[in-house]
Structures are given as structure tokens and as C-alpha cells.
Amino acid sequence: xxxxxxxxxxxxxxxxxxxxxxxxxxxxxxxxxxxxxxxxxxxxxxxxxxxxxxxxxxxxxxxxxxxxxxxxxxxxxxxxxxxxxxxxxx
Length: 90
Hints:
five-stranded antiparallel β-sheet
């Protein structure tokens, strides 16, 4: 099983949000909490099963460090990170 950590990027594999890119805010047990800064904000993250997301190879060590210190991310920051990542991953 792949280790899922806060700060990683994930693409939805199932549901009406299929194909959408998210940042993992929390990971525990069978579920992850996801935010995209637009439809799913940091205050209201989407809860999804781990098997319904695909981890992306786009690392941002500063982001992981901030989430490990329990700092909150602003929605503007989330959107900016995802926009940069989406251009690289496509």
C-alpha cells in the first residue's frame, strides 16, 4: 500500500468530480480529506476513500512541512499550487 501524506496531490478517479486535482489535507485510515480551493475549500474539504484517488508525482516540500506543523492553507494558495501542478502534470 502506498503511503498517503498531507501535502501530496491526488486526482479523483471516481464520482462526479472524476479527473479533478486536489491537495490532501488529512490522511487517516481508509479516507483522505481533499481541497481544491474553489469547489472544496480548506474549511470544507471533501472526504474520499483512498482507493478513489490517484497520487500524483508532484512534490512540494514546503507545503508538506506547513501541513505537518498544522498550519492552515488559504484557498488562494491551494488554487495557485494546483494551477502550477496541473500545467506540469498534463
